Amino acid sequence: MPCKRLTYSGPKDWPAIQEWLDKRKDPDTNVDGIVRDILENVRENGDKALAEYTAKFDCADFAPNMIRVPQDAIDRALTEVPESDVEILREAIENIRAFHINQREKSWWTTSPDGTVLGQMVTPVERVGLYVPGGQGGETPLISSLIMNAVPAQVAGVESIAMTSPPRKDGTLNPHILATAALLGITEVHLCGSAWAIGALAYGTETIAPCDVIAGPGNIFVATAKTQLIGQVGIDMVAGPSEIAILADDSATPGWLAADMLSQAEHDPLAASILVTDSSELAEATCAELKRQTAELPRGEIAAKSLEDWGATIVVDTIDTGADLINKLAPEHLELSLADPWAKLGKIRHAGAIFMGHHSPEPVGDYFAGPNHVLPTLRTVRFSSALSVQTFCKKSSVVAASAEYVARHGDKIARLARLEGLEAHARSVECRNK
User: Fold this and answer.
1) Model's pTM, two decimal places?
2) What torsion do the CA atoms of 421, 424, 427, 428 make, to the nearest 10 degrees?
3) How many CB atoms are located within 10 Å of the residue 385 CB?
């Protein structure tokens, strides 16, 4: 299970690294037509299409009347999971909610002496659809995905939230998913998955009302469906495979670094795990730990493939050179495993989430601390941000001009309109000054 061993001394070494990592971006266009047909079928046939797809792929006896999960099943789930799990979920939700409350934006207004008022009004979208992947037939419930998508929508003030997730073979959802929905106060839970679930949330069916924004991770069919619906609904983002970069000096512990790299490598064979360090000894020791720890993992085969194709230790001359490389990598997750991480934080410009010091492994943020774990991947963090309260809000500009304002500036506005050949625009202002 070798991972690449590279060196980086400056910008001249970047093109080769970029060429290697950019191969992860290759889209699977083979599913485009399939997804387009699925979306059209859902738009035309509603619940009938959802039931047919779900019966074919998830639950053989599925029927349209099974799409909506009864409220008593959601409530009952709280008694079907260990109370200790419920308490952990409740605490995680509280932490994540507290963090996102700080993201709220306020409407604002300015006034002029002539009475003109200008401002910006922030309002939540009316309805949000959340997609929760099935997780190996329901056996690995992706509860963190539900929490991370639901909480910022709720903090934004969204009043109507629908959730969809593919059923297990017996037509139920894992009780941990339902218990999490109950703790979040989500009462609208639907059984459907993949691209047909995304179509239902976008177009609506007899059972599922259409949504304004759709959020939540998924496979290539889910991602493609969201991409095809851009412009018709809002989406969170089209996320690629997970990735982590670690900038470490000789104060770091090789076993900890290897564990952190593997926390991403076990996700997906396309996940990228990269250690950047100014210590060749640390790089060697971490490689040895990767080999040892991978052999002990239940998902070791996936992790080994990920490390072989997209893992690397990159040795740099200095930590500052390493920070330059980190900004070029623009990783989803970045760990600063340094003796003094705060001294280097100001050098980081491009990273989705930054984990400071030796006791802040990435899973702390994935599940519990509070920041959102839905992050841009594939270097898109250069221009985009984590899922947030703002994802579920929209902003309206407000203009309340006074008569004095129009009298003073009307001729200027009319002139600008005529420069663009828009005579009616000009007259719309001028008629108020006659």
Assistant:
1) 0.94
2) -130
3) 14
The SS3 of residue 297 is coil
160 and 87: one domain? yes
Q: How open is the CA angle 346-350-355, to the nearest 5 degrees?
A: 65
- pLDDT tens digits, one per residue of 215-257: 999 989 999 999 999 999 999 998 889 999 999 999 999 999 9
Specify whether 321 is located in the same domain as 374.
yes
Domains: count for the chain: 3
Q: Torsion angle, CA of 254/259/264/270, rounded to 10 degrees? A: 70
Q: What does pLDDT average to over the chain?
A: 96
The H-assigned helical ranges of 102-249 are: 143-156, 175-184, 194-203, 220-228
Say if 190 falls within a structural domain. Answer: yes
Whether residues 326 and 270 fall in one domain: yes
Annotated active-site positions, please?
332-333
Distance CA 130, CA 107 (A): 26
One domain for residues 230 and 248 = no
3-state secondary structure 207-219: CCCCCCEEECCCC
The answer to whether residues 273 and 248 touch, using CB atoms and an 8 Å cutoff, is no
CATH code (residue 300): 3.40.50.1980
Q: How far apart are CA 228 and CA 33, in angstroms?
A: 10
Domain range for 426 is 403-433
Q: The tokens of 69 are what?
A: 């999960």
- Same structural domain, 217 and 251: no
